[in-house]
Specification:
Structural class of chain B: alpha/beta
Distance between the termini of chain A: 37 Å
Chains: A alpha/beta (258), B alpha/beta (469), C alpha/beta (387)
Strand order of the largest sheet of chain A: 6-9-10-3-11-12
Number of helices of chain B: 13
Helix content of chain B: 25-40%
Radius of gyration of chain B: 21 Å
Oligomer: heterotrimer
Number of helices of chain A: 8
Shape of chain A: globular
Largest interface: B-C, 46 and 50 residues
Order of helices and strands of chain A: EEEHEEHEEHHEHEHEEEHH
Strand content of chain B: 35-45%
Structural class of chain A: alpha/beta
Distance between the termini of chain B: 23 Å
Shape of chain B: globular
Largest sheet of chain B: 13 strands, mixed
Strand content of chain A: 25-35%
């Protein structure tokens, strides 16, 4: 085991309402690395993201999650966030009465425990919003209320840029976005990596968002198991051939049901 | 179900309205009113055990002490001194239709009961005025150990102790004035016991026919579905129309034991001179499920709110109801639920239609007690107004005593949209048919919960009401 | 004196065991020392204030609209258990009902009549502020009349010394004439030793509009009632209520929109938080009268329960005697959802901080509609202090 590994997932199994979803997942991510998690629909990709982040709906039945030297297997999500983990949601929360700007400030304050220097904060926020081509008035709008799908995704990346975690898990951040928006979002992701040497776990079933990123490792998740791991070239291969060769059961030439 | 909507045949209310002249030598009729003497006489007539005689007299006392509620429809047209508490045919209950007196048999033939029994029911009880005239259960169901009998036999027979243990424990006579009245003069009804683990595949049905003018019907239904058992029970009611008030104050007590399931379906089509002041209640134990399907079409005035007590952890209930209030009707219906156990869940969804001056009121209460952690409830009630001389009121109440509850409530009131009518008319339907079809569609979530022949009957009733019958 | 009043009648009675058909105010040994409404700090142009009007003056204000209301009433039956007759005799129907009128009469409470002149849209709000000392017991009565085509905003703020005890009872009646608009804001930040009631009744003529914003943040026991008669064609009633109850605070409310006119609109939003042993009773009624064709009504209640010991009663009523209407009610009651909490936690905000954030968000979403920055800041401060 390398000492510098940031995230170490060992033999992780998890279930939802007593239904096992993830089986014996092993994953190691080092600082600054970009990992991609691919797999067909229903493979358990989002479940893995939620389980890593500590969603109480998903019960860890076996294994452990070590992050930055700390065992977080049984910790609540806020402890994981404070340790430097971040998850971007597919459907982020809407909160009437709290603006996006004020929400990020709250989260920043909770994570650092330090008072926020308002001027500096505002400047950073403006820069990040500019990078994401978000109108500055969004900072004063209620968190995600009335945001379009693309705006919600950008608001998640904005939080990523402001909160500067050590590891960002991006759950289908590119789904439902047009080409321009994908480009903007991936610009934001690059910026995050540049600033912080942040590690990434990108959950996706398309490859658009990966075009401008250097992918170190690609994992293929099928039926809750990581069945193969490769480098960035695996992305291209899957792009071409799909998942078919991975979803067959061992010793079988494939069946009609898949 | 859509097919049913299309194939609705014109029906004629007269089938419900045929009255049989009850000649004095064939029928015994108690004098009108509710006095101690009358209650004693009923008790004698019915050969009650001593505890039941006392129970009746105690209930009468409670009846006289309690006041009418101040919240519901008016009952001014109901003069209790003009109601006969007990009317029965002098012929005894039979186990074969051939043996039932001709005129009574004809009534049930016209209502299609013997035919339904042959085709789709596991057992049938038929009550005519105050007493059961027919009771039968299919052999294969009886062989599973299922008891389905009239209350009178149950009271003195093999299950006497069980009846004594459960009778009016869930709906005590102190509950309200008409529960007390019921306790005093009850007669007829069914007793069902489904043993542990027994699943009754086809429904049992009781049919209640109130034929005598100015009479009351006070049947008592007691159903115990033991652990892990499963039953569907259907209740049908009708009466011919008279110019004097009739009264129905029945009582239904349902005990759903651990992991059991009971579905209780009712199509109520009392005549429009009926005061229907009925009480239904279910006690649901751990992991058990209670399902109510309730259609209210008849009666002049109704107070009807089946209540479910979710006592056991993980117990659930679902109530699906429809009420159609037409001319001269004031139907106050809905449901009550009390969450006591943890992880209990309730779903109430109702439809209400008001037309031609009818008053339809949806009334409910949802109580979530402090102990009922992780309780979940969802209420949705839709009302449809078909003109502006009618009323549709929605009066739900909720009392939540724990933060660990998930409560959703939705109510809507509206009309048939002109666009929808226009669309259907552009496809060749008459306006009347178009409106009837839309109303049937509105009622569809309820009718699809009913066995097919009842869904058809319900659609017929809607059609009948829509054409102003 | 001892005060015993039956108020906040649910427009249609229901099961007694729900204990929500009405509420009783029962306060002993009350010594009312002040009944005069404090003068506004500034009276904008086109606004007249008459400080000591009598009952007959109030009757005059509402005389014309009352004739019209009478003409509209039909003989068709009301709902089962109709309680409207309990309040017969009010000059204008109010949420709490006639017993508040009777109390004001009995105590000879002078009425402050605030009038906006015909056709004037008054930009600056009229501020009325009650700052109460320990032991003060106060009654007050106001009438706000927006003449034809005018618009007026009244902001009423109730505050007290910290840890003070006392009593404050207010009656505010509103008349919006044709095309007029009244914005009424009430912010209650009394200390928990106070018993408080606030009764509002209003009437709208054609195309008139009444908008109310209420924030109930303090007082140990509060009764609030608002009833608006939408008489005129295309008249509107919008309400936003925010409340925060903790400790053993009790809040009992009754909101009614009586929709008589054609194409009327009512829209009521209630957003609240219950903590500790707080008790809340909410009654909200949309009443579509026969003849109110084309009218719509919507009531939304959203209550956050943050303690296992709270009591939440909700009575969302829709009464309807008209075919051509669209009425809706939605209620969502419960604790912070798992999804909400997980999202917050994933951003490093723990459960306790998430709850506080959500409480503030709810209150903020109502408070920000108040057209007075300084007051919004005072509300934020008040909430911060009590949290």
């Amino acid at each position: 085991m390398s000492e510098q590994s940031l995230l170490q997932v060992k033999n992780l199994s998890a279930s939802v309402e007593d239904l096992p979803i993830l089986h014996d997942i092993n994953l190691e991510i080092k600082p600054g690395e970009t990992h991609v998690l691919m797999g067909p629909n229903g493979a358990g990709k989002s479940t893995l993201g939620y389980t890593l982040m500590g969603n109480p709906h998903y019960k860890i039945t076996d294994g452990s999650i070590i992050f930055d030297g700390q065992d977080l297997t049984n910790e609540a999500a806020d402890k994981r966030a404070k340790a430097g983990m971040f998850l971007s949601f597919q459907n982020p929360l809407e909160v009437p009465g709290i603006s996006l700007g004020s929400f990020i400030r709250n989260a920043y304050h909770e994570q650092t425990g330090k008072p926020v220097k308002l001027l500096q904060y505002k400047k950073q926020l403006a820069e990040a919003m500019d990078l994401l081509t978000m109108d500055s008035e969004y900072a004063d709008r209620d968190l995600n209320v009335g945001f379009s799908g693309g705006e919600k995704k950008k608001a998640e990346i904005l939080q990523l840029l402001m909160l500067k975690p050590k590891l960002a898990i991006l759950d289908e951040t590119d789904s439902g976005l047009d080409v321009d928006a994908v480009r903007t979002v991936s610009k934001g992701i690059q910026e995050y990596q540049k600033q912080k040497d942040g590690a990434l776990l990108i959950i996706t079933h398309s490859t658009k968002i990966l075009e401008s990123l250097h992918v170190d490792y690609t994992h293929v998740l099928v039926k809750g198991r990581i069945i193969t791991t490769g480098d960035g070239r695996l992305v291209d291969e899957i792009n071409e051939n799909g998942f078919e060769k991975y979803v067959r059961c061992e010793g079988c030439s494939g069946c009609d049901t898949i | 179900m859509a097919e049913n909507n299309k194939t609705v045949v014109d029906i004629d209310r007269s089938v419900y309205d045929i009255k049989d002249v009850e000649n004095e030598q064939d029928f015994y009729r108690m004098e009108d009113g509710f006095t101690e003497d009358i209650v004693k006489k009923i008790s004698e007539e019915k050969h009650d055990p001593e505890w039941m005689r006392q129970f009746r007299l105690d209930s009468l006392k409670i009846y006289n002490e309690l006041e009418m509620p101040d919240w519901g429809p008016e009952t001014d047209g109901l003069d209790m001194n003009l109601i006969s508490s007990y009317v029965r045919s002098k012929s005894d209950m039979k186990g074969k239709w051939e043996d039932v007196p001709e005129d009574i048999k004809n009534t049930f033939e016209r209502l299609g009961i013997p035919e339904a029994e042959r085709e789709s029911l596991a057992g049938v009880g038929a009550q005519y005025d105050s007493e059961l005239v027919y009771h039968n259960v299919k052999d294969e169901v009886a062989n599973q150990g299922v008891i389905y009998t009239d209350m009178e036999s149950a009271l003195t027979g093999e299950y006497a102790d069980m009846v004594h243990e459960y009778f009016m424990k869930l709906v005590p006579p102190t509950d309200h004035k008409y529960a007390a009245l019921h306790g005093a003069v009850w007669s007829g009804g069914s007793f069902v016991y489904v043993p542990k683990g027994v699943k009754v595949d086809i429904p049992l049905q009781s049919y209640f026919r109130l034929n005598a003018a100015g009479a009351g019907q006070f049947e008592h239904t007691l159903i115990i579905v033991d652990e892990g058992a499963d039953l569907h029970f259907i209740e049908g009611c009708s009466a011919p129309k008279y110019n004097v008030a009739n009264l129905h104050a029945g009582c239904v007590e349902l005990f759903v034991k651990k992991n059991a399931r009971l579905r209780y379906s009712t199509i109520e089509n009392w005549s429009k001179n009926m005061y229907n002041l009925n009480t239904k209640r279910a006690l649901v134990e751990e992991g058990a499920r209670m399902e109510w399907v309730s259609g209210s079409f008849g009666s002049h005035t109704s107070y009807l709110y089946p209540m479910t007590i979710l006592k056991g952890d993980h117990s659930t209930m679902e109530y699906t109801g429809i009420t159609f209030a037409g001319k001269g009707q004031n139907l106050d219906t809905g449901a009550k639920v009390v969450h006591q156990g943890k992880y209990t869940s309730s779903v109430i969804s109702t439809k209400s239609i008001s037309k031609s001056g009818g008053i339809g009121t949806y009334r409910s209460s949802v109580i979530i007690n402090k102990e009922a952690k992780h309780a979940k409830t969802s209420v949705s009630c839709d009302s449809l107004m078909l003109d502006s001389i009618s009323r549709a009121d929605t009066i739900p109440g909720m009392d939540i005593r724990t933060d660990d509850a998930d409560v959703g409530h939705e109510a809507k009131i509206g009309r048939i949209s002109d666009e929808a009518v226009f669309y259907l008319m552009s496809r060749g339907l008459s306006e009347e048919d178009a409106r009837a079809m839309i109303v049937s569609g509105f009622a569809n979530p309820v009718s699809k919960e009913l066995p097919l022949e009842y869904a058809v009957e319900m659609n017929n009733l809607i059609k009948l009401e829509m054409s102003g019958g | 004196m001892d005060l015993k009043m039956k108020v906040n009648h649910l427009p249609a009675l229901t099961y007694r065991f729900l204990k929500s058909n009405s509420s009783e105010i029962d306060v002993n040994d009350l010594y009312i020392e002040n009944t005069k409404t404090p003068e506004p700090d500034m009276i904008p142009a086109a606004v007249t204030v008459k400080s000591d009007a009598a009952k007959s003056d109030v009757q005059d204000v509402f005389a014309k609209i009352n004739e019209k209301i009478k003409a509209k009433q039909t003989k068709l039956p009301g709902p089962n258990g109709d309680t409207a007759p309990f309040n017969d005799g009010q000059i204008v129907r109010t949420g709490m009902g006639i017993e508040v009128d009777n109390l004001m009469d009995e105590m000879n409470v002078p009425v402050m009549i605030i009038t906006a002149d015909e056709g004037y849209k008054v930009e600056e709000p009229v501020h009325i502020k009650y700052s109460l000392k320990d032991g003060e017991c106060v009654l007050g009565s106001q009438v706000i009349c927006a003449k034809k085509g005018s618009e007026i905003t009244i902001i009423m703020e109730y505050e007290s010394e910290a840890d003070a005890k006392g009593f404050l009872g207010i009656s505010t009646r509103l008349l919006a004439e044709e095309g007029a608009k009244i914005n009424l804001v009430k912010v209650q930040m009394l200390s928990e030793g106070f018993v408080h009631f606030d009764d509002i009744g209003g009437a709208c003529d054609d195309k008139a509009d009444i908008e109310t914003i209420t924030m109930q943040l303090g007082a140990g026991k509060t009764w609030g009632g608002t009833r608006v008669t939408l008489l005129g064609r295309k008249s509107i009633f919008n309400n936003h209520t925010g409340y925060l109850c903790r400790h053993t605070q009790e809040y009992d409310m009754n909101y009614v929109a009586d929709q008589y006119g054609q194409k009327t609109e009512s829209n009521m939003v209630f957003r609240g938080v219950l903590l500790d042993n707080a008790v809340k009773t909410f009654r909200g009624t949309l009443d579509f009268k026969t003849g109110s064709a084309g009218s719509v009504g919507d009531e939304q209640e959203d209550t956050l329960l943050l303690s296992p010991d709270v009591v939440n009663r909700t009575m969302p009523v829709i009464l309807c005697g008209e075919e051509d209407v669209d009425g809706r009610h939605g209620a969502s009651i419960g604790q912070l959802g798992d999804d909400t909490l997980f999202y917050m936690e994933s951003r490093g905000i723990d459960e306790d901080a998430a709850k506080k954030l959500m409480i503030r968000a709810r209150m903020e979403s109502i408070a920000r509609m108040i057209p007075d920055e300084a007051l919004i800041i005072r509300i934020q401060q008040f909430i911060r202090t009590i949290l």
